[in-house]
């Protein structure tokens, strides 16, 4: 009953010409798919080109970040309104690279979630534990805090717009995927937590993505799990062939 969603996070890769070529390949292969939501997240400089290339197709575009103020003296930042204005429908928020490299806190991430929702964009809120946190038994506490803090001030009627991406930090870009059982354990916990925050019906409708070294070879197994509704894909989203295979995972 939840429509699967596969999102590609292009991170800080691609020139304008490369982004246009990749977007065109994806549009040609996937642009008319209706049983799945497909999202690509290019760098800010590429957004306009990608939005123009995938226009009138099933592919939506996401910003990789935003600043939680509508406009003003915030040099180097991009607002949710600006993402909306340039044709984005989603924004990735709280990616572990931003948490770790840019020192983003749960409270700051929460402001961005609220800003995106206020601008009519769907946040893809990333949460995930480090290996140390997992091995020391803190995993669920950390994830709960990321989720509860990240969703503060979100109203129950808005919560269905939020997509949660569980991305164990130790699995991102490392080639180590969480096993489908490890991922499912966390996804079930996330859904349970969403239920406590926003009610059972909302939690059942919310989409929870897995991210961390997703590839054509492991997507089918991940997607058999009842609480895995799709994937946030980094490295494998940079090659059209791989991303097309991932989006074309075997349907049950
Ligand atoms: C990511 O950065 O969101 C990610 C999941 O990367 P990768 O697929 O390369 O592990």
Description:
The chain has a single domain (5-247), classed as Alpha-Beta Barrel (TIM Barrel), CATH 3.20.20.70. Helix content is 44%, strand content 15%. The protein contains 12 helices and 8 strands. Helix 1 runs parallel beside helix 2 and helix 1 packs parallel to helix 12 (240-247). The protein is globular. The two termini are 13 Å apart. Phosphoenolpyruvate is lined by residues 9, 167, 172-173, 211-214, 232-236.
Write down the overall mean pLDDT. 97
The helix tally amounts to 12
Number of domains: 1
Helix content: 40-55%
Give the SSE order as H and E letters.
Answer: EHEHEHEHHEHHHEHHEHEH
| Class derived from helix and strand content | alpha/beta
Label the CATH architecture. Alpha-Beta Barrel
**Bound ligand species:** phosphoenolpyruvate
* Broad shape: globular
Distance between the termini: 13 Å
Name given to the CATH homologous superfamily: Aldolase class I
Order of adjacent strands in the largest pleated sheet:
1-2-3-4-5-6-7-8
Structure characteristics:
alpha/beta, TIM Barrel, 8-stranded parallel β-barrel, 12 helices, 15% strand, binds phosphoenolpyruvate
């Amino acid at each position: 009953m939840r429509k699967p969603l596969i999102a590609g996070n292009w991170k800080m890769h691609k020139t304008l010409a490369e982004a246009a070529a990749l977007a065109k390949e994806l549009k040609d292969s996937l642009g008319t798919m209706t049983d799945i939501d497909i999202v690509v997240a290019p760098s800010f400089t590429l957004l306009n080109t990608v939005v123009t290339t995938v226009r009138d197709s099933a592919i939506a575009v996401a910003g990789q970040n935003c600043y939680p103020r509508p406009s003003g003296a915030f040099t180097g930042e991009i607002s949710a309104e600006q993402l909306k204005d340039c044709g984005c429908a989603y924004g990735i928020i709280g990616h572990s690279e931003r948490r770790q490299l840019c020192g983003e806190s749960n409270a700051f991430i929460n402001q961005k979630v609220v800003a995106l929702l206020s601008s009519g964009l769907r946040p893809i809120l990333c949460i995930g534990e480090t290996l140390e946190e997992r091995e020391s038994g803190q995993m669920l506490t950390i994830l709960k805090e990321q989720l509860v803090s990240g969703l503060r001030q979100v109203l129950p009627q808005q919560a269905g717009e939020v997509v949660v991406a569980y991305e164990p930090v130790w699995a991102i870009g490392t080639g180590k995927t969480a096993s489908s059982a490890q991922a499912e354990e966390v996804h079930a916990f996330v859904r349970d937590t969403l239920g406590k925050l926003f009610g059972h019906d909302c939690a059942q409708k919310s989409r929870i993505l897995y991210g961390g070294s997703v590839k054509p070879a492991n997507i089918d197994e991940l997607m058999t799990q009842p609480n895995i509704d799709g994937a946030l894909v980094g490295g494998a989203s940079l090659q059209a062939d791989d991303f097309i295979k991932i989006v074309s995972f075997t349907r049950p």
